[in-house]
């Protein structure tokens, strides 16, 4: 059985509840029939069951139809209300009949109220059937419906008149009322039967099972009425006979129709295919109905002829009208067929023009796969004539790599129910006339056992999708895989057949000095350098490995393992590859006719069991940063201690963020002493962090790990405010010495430290002019010297002195000296440390001090730790110094004591060897 057949078979199977209901209904009807067949055991009980039993059954049908009408859709609600009214009329008629026979114990009159109720049974049922029927959409449809009803009704009237009604009329011809009543019953039944037959093939698409059951119930009732009206049966009819079982079963069947049938359908509602096996048969019977009706009419006339009877005028009149109705109906059908044929021809021409002019290729394939039709668009799409393709197997046009997938998809589509999946979409490669393979997307439909393909060329779309996919996974500048694709490659390298291979490694590469190339030669030259570096990297990795650009000047490489289990061997192999990459990337780059050099720092991390791609890449990144911190241009292997260091720095940075608010920072001071008199001329403020764990961190330690510009700015503001506040407090105590605060050039230009902030500080604390010295800590080449010069000039207008810190360390200091307004030069500690031992440094320092003297600037030597340095600097003309030769960092209490003493002993002269003799003669300097 096919899949649609199986689904249809399922629909006819009732559920357990519905089956029980049907069994109970059958048992009740069978019980009534048995009782009626045996006379119910007594005449009195037979009369009661024949009258009030039928009334109760009709009442149950009326109540059931009424209740169902309240919950049914508005479209069918009037029909079920009319069925309820029809059953109510039958209930009332049987009740009146029982009133006469049971209560009054006499015969029912020939004309009674019961006859009125029985006559009112058929009209509501007829109108209800009309409501349930499909409404014709045209006038000719309405006319054909009326003609079909008359054909059936007239034929039945002819046959009934010939068999019984004429005799009944002659028997009761003397009394008009009894004759009319005798004719009314069969005529209404004939009309009801006509409607049942005419509308049987015109049912609406609602609850078909309920409607079929209701039609069956009415048909059973009409059949019993027909038997009752026959002269042979009516003369001998008494209540409680077997005929009552038919009426009773019809009432209960009508009561069951809306509820039991609906539960069956709602419980199992499979998708209904558009074409059922019985549909052609049903259509044929509907078309033959008028001719069958005419045949019945002819049989009625032939019966009179065979019996030798005179043909009654009613039979002649009815037969003539039936023939006329049949002729008119055939004429209407002929006109409709002509119109439909013309419309079909127009639609065929229309769709042919659509197919011929469509840019899509339409192909019809036979069940065996041979092409039976190909639209002319194949010439433009495939580059092949349509006639050339007709008769070719469809499989010969499909790429061999796609053929298996296409066949599988077609078989699955044909096996699926057409209602659930009317079409399918298949994409594959078709062979063009030029031998190329085109990407074709086809919409597939079923067609008489074969398939219809509506195909279009999507080669350009596929190319654009591939291009977009490539752009999403590759770097736009170097065309190397980007971070997303590299991460996916690492994941693939850690899973599948390479899972657990300890030889898999990730290399993180950073180009040292690339930023200087960008700043010196421009971004275009920097981009060219990155392109050349990417090309070198891609050419240097092995086949199967992956080189990628992660962003900026950071690259990466995935080195897949070779199955080597020896740890030393695999580390040696990967380190050799990494070192070769380092040397390759460190070779000079030819850019705009110039040789540009950069170095490469490489971090290596090896795969471990259970490691994730993110962790492996993080480990390689940590190793790369360790390589940069260790001197750059080197290869560093990841070790677990690196992660511990990162954790420590992260924790330190987190504590630093809360240290300011918790008061863990302290301000210490270094005395700046005159090398001639030993008096304290100024103090240098320095911040120190004493954490809650009791650890004292220097700025080089906590600022290096903070990585938080906002926190650094906040620390700079705190240092400035605290230094000014303590200097003002010392001034009020009589210690009027300037305080110097070290600030970077970038911090001076930061908007978080506007000019009004410094001016407000000086005003609020009443610090006199010249009491604040700003040490320019560095000269960042990225800082605009024009903006810095303007800022320093504004500070000097406020009475702030400017000191150039770290003088003698690099070319930037001389540039700053040339451009910026400076009052004090602070010699770099690196010069002071070797001034005694190195004659070269001695001469350099002497020259720098001479420059300071020529410019009229004060000079301060930082890092004066031994007396030999002090004497040498003073001999060169240096005026001030700070360092351990005088004092270390002092807190506020010790600083005030030193200011109260107001001098430090300085040596007048010393003979060589300096260090030994000075410590012997002046032991106090060594404390």
From TrEMBL:
Sequence intervals crossing the membrane: 20-40, 46-68, 80-100, 112-133, 145-164, 176-199, 211-233, 281-305, 311-328
Domain of life: Bacteria
InterPro entries per UniProt: Biofilm_reg_signaling, EAL_dom, EAL_sf, GGDEF_dom, Nucleotide_cyclase, PAS, PAS-like_dom_sf, PAS_4
SUPFAM superfamilies for the chain: EAL domain-like, Nucleotide cyclase, PYP-like sensor domain (PAS domain)
Domain GGDEF: 502-640
Domain PAS residue range list: 347-417
Coiled coil: none
Keywords: Membrane, Transmembrane, Transmembrane helix
Residue stretches making up the EAL domain: 649-903
Gene3D superfamilies, alphabetized: 3.30.70.270, EAL domain (3.20.20.450), PAS domain (3.30.450.20)
NCBIfam families: GGDEF (TIGR00254), sensory_box (TIGR00229)
Name of the molecule in the record: EAL domain-containing protein
């Amino acid at each position: 059985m096919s899949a649609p057949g199986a689904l249809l078979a399922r629909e006819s199977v009732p559920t357990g509840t519905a089956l029980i209901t049907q069994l109970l209904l059958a048992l009740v009807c069978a019980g009534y029939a048995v009782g009626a067949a045996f006379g119910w055991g007594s005449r009195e009980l037979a009369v009661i069951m024949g009258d009030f039993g039928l009334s109760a059954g009709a009442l149950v049908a009326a109540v059931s139809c009424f209740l169902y009408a309240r919950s049914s859709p508005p479209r069918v609600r009037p029909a079920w209300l009319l069925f309820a009214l029809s059953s109510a009329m039958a209930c009332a008629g049987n009740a009146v009949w029982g009133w006469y026979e049971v209560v009054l114990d006499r015969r029912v009159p020939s004309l009674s109220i019961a006859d009125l109720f029985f006559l009112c049974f058929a009209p509501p049922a007829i109108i209800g059937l009309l409501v349930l029927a499909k409404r014709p959409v045209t006038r000719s449809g309405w006319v054909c419906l009326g003609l079909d009803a008359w054909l059936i009704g007239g034929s039945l009237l002819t046959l009934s008149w010939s068999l019984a009604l004429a005799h009944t009329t002659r028997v009761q011809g003397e009394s008009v009322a009894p004759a009319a009543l005798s004719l009314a019953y069969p005529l209404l039944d004939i009309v009801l039967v006509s409607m049942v037959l005419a509308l049987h093939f015109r049912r609406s698409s609602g609850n078909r099972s309920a409607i079929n059951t209701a039609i069956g119930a009415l048909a059973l009732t009409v059949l019993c009425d027909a038997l009752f009206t026959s002269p042979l049966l009516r003369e001998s009819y008494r209540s409680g006979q077997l005929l009552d079982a038919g009426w009773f079963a019809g009432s209960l069947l009508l009561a069951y129709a809306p509820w039991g049938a609906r539960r069956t359908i709602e419980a199992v509602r499979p998708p209904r295919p558009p074409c059922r096996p019985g549909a052609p048969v049903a259509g044929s019977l509907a078309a033959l109905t008028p001719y069958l009706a005419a045949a019945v009419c002819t049989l009625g006339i032939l019966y009179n002829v065979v019996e030798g009877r005179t043909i009654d005028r009613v039979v002649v009149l009815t037969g003539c009208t039936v023939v006329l109705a049949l002729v008119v109906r055939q004429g209407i059908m002929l006109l409709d067929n002509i119109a439909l044929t013309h419309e079909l021809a127009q639609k065929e021409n229309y769709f042919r023009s659509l197919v011929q002019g469509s840019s899509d290729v339409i192909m019809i394939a036979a069940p065996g796969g041979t092409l039976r039709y190909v639209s002319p668009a194949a010439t433009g799409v495939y580059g092949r004539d349509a006639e050339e393709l007709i008769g070719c197997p469809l499989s010969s046009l499909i790429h061999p790599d796609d053929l298996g997938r296409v066949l599988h998809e077609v078989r699955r589509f044909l096996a699926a129910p057409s209602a659930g999946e009317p079409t399918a979409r298949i994409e594959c490669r078709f062979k063009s006339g030029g031998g190329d393979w085109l990407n074709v997307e086809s919409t597939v439909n079923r067609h008489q056992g074969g398939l219809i393909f509506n195909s279009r060329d999507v080669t350009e779309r596929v190319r654009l999708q591939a291009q977009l996919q490539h752009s999403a996974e590759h770097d736009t500048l170097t065309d190397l895989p980007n971070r997303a694709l590299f991460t996916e490659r690492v994941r693939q390298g850690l899973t599948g057949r390479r899972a657990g291979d300890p030889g898999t490694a990730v290399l993180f590469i950073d180009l040292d000095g690339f930023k200087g190339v960008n700043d010196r030669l421009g971004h275009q030259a920097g981009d060219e350098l990155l392109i050349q570096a990417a090309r070198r990297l891609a050419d240097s990795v092995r086949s199967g490995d992956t080189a990628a650009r992660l962003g900026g000047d950071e690259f990466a490489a995935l080195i897949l393992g070779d199955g080597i289990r020896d740890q030393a061997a695999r580390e040696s192999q990967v380190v050799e590859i990494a070192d070769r990459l380092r040397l390759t990337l460190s070779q000079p780059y030819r850019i705009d006719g110039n040789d540009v050099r950069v170095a490469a720092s490489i971090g290596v991390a090896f795969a471990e069991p259970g490691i994730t791609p993110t962790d492996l890449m993080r480990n390689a990144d940590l190793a790369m940063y360790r390589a940069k911190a260790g001197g750059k241009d080197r290869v560093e292997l990841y070790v677990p201690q690196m992660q511990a260091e990162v954790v420590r720095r992260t924790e330190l940075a987190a504590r630093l963020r809360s240290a300011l608010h918790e008061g863990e920072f302290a301000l210490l001071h270094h005395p700046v002493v005159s090398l001639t008199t030993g008096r304290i001329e100024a103090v240098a403020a320095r911040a120190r962090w004493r954490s809650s764990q009791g650890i004292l961190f220097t700025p080089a330690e906590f600022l290096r790990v903070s990585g938080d510009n906002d926190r650094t700015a906040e620390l700079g503001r705190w240092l400035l405010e605290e230094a000014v506040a303590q200097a003002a407090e010392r001034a009020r105590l009589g210690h009027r010495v300037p305080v110097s605060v070290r600030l970077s050039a970038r911090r001076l230009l930061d908007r978080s430290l506007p000019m009004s902030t410094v001016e407000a500080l000086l005003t609020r604390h009443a610090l006199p002019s010249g009491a604040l010295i700003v040490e320019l800590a560095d000269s960042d080449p990225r800082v605009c010297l024009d903006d810095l010069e303007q800022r320093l000039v504004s500070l000097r207008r406020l009475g702030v002195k400017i000191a150039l810190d770290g003088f003698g360390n690099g070319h930037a200091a001389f540039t700053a000296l040339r451009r910026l307004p400076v009052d004090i030069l602070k010699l770099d500690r690196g010069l002071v440390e070797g001034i005694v031992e190195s004659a070269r440094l001695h001469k350099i320092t002497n020259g720098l001090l001479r420059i300071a003297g020529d410019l009229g600037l004060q000079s301060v030597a930082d890092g004066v730790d031994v007396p030999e340095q002090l004497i040498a600097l003073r001999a060169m003309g240096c005026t001030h110094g700070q360092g351990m030769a005088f004092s270390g960092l002092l807190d506020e209490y010790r600083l005030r004591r030193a200011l109260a003493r107001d001098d430090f002993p300085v040596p007048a002269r010393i003979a060589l060897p300096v260090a030994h003799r000075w410590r012997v003669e002046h032991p106090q300097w060594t404390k």
